[in-house]
Amino acid sequence: MDGFAFAKDNDISQNSTLDIVGESCAGNPYDGELQPNQGVRIFTGAVVPSTCDTVVMQENTNFSDIQATLDKSKPYQITLATTASIGANIRKQGEEVQTGETVLTTGKRLNPTDISLLANLGVAQIKVAKPLTVGIIATGDELVQLGEPLQHLAQIYNSNTPTLKTLLKDLPISIKDYGIVPDSLDATRQTVKNAIADCDVIISSAGVSVGDYDFLTTVIDDLGKINHYKVAMKPGKPFVFGEFGGEFAEDNKQVLYFGLPGNPLSTVVGCLQFIKPALWRLSGVVENDIPMQLRLSANTTHDIKKQAGRQDYQRASFVQNEDGSFSVTPLSAQDSHRVKQLSQANCLLVLPKDNAGVKAGESVVIEPFAWNF
Length: 373
What we know:
Blueprint: E1 3-7, E2 17-24, E3 38-42, E4 52-57, H1 63-66, E5 76-79, H2 112-120, E6 132-139, E7 143-144, E8 156-157, H3 160-167, E9 173-181, H4 185-198, E10 201-205, H5 216-223, E11 224-229, E12 233-234, E13 240-244, E14 255-260, H6 264-282, E15 296-300, E16 311-320, E17 326-330, H7 339-344, E18 347-351, E19 363-368
Parallel strand pairs: 2-3, 6-9, 6-10, 7-8, 10-14, 12-16, 15-17
Antiparallel strand pairs: 1-3, 1-4, 2-5, 11-13, 13-14, 15-19, 16-17, 16-18, 18-19
Helix pairs in contact: 3-6, 4-5
């Protein structure tokens, strides 16, 4: 506090007086000796003289009344307006961080407040974990890179790669883009081999279904193994989880594989539900530092049709009511190719596997999109 530091054993009761014989400023401490009944004017952030044990706020003295008449280059006297408390308004060395104390543990995701802590401790550099390298592969003869013209009606733009890059940008990872792989077994095999050598995790979009030109599952079977295929969810049922290792991986490391369907909504939902949570854990971040998936209860404004058997993620728009509750409106058509509706939504409406439909006014679970907050 801006005020006055008292020498130890002084009278600090109301109406007592103190002789002020110097100043202690931030960066310029008072280095003289203090006698009984003496003190120094002190400012916020200044060092308290070793012979002082109490600081009284300037407002609790008569200083404001007399300062206009003072020659502060000479000793002057102040009077306490209230009784002071011993030890008041002093921050002690080591009261927050002790010598040898661990302030940041392995796996802590550094945020701006951590940087503040490190800087205040004078730590200019620390060792950090090497980010995971994540490879992204897009497959399909129909795909065209953004910026290139479409040549005929059978072509579409590769939207999934930029979408995945954006969805994953907040993760502590390094992304390697392997571009578009044509529908060729040899080309698919070579690209996957290259990605195994370079990456810790591989993510692909399309090519994981059962069509004659879906070669990724064949390549995974040949070079690694499929641990899980298909999930009881809509959209995104043909989701693949597998792994690679051995001769194509550096130092026989394990490389995990996530295969997403090609439809844009399936890519977004699969990434949010499976890939992002997995990558956070693979990155080594401690559990309580992983961003939480926010889930809210909301009352639906419309009836919702659904067949039991798969967990359903529907695009929807929610609002907060005046009483603090939430209402959610599902968007009309829920086909997985409708990207405009995905852009218009601000949440996913989650209907459990056994749910067989919802009536207007009933409570449902929603997952707000993080980019709307």
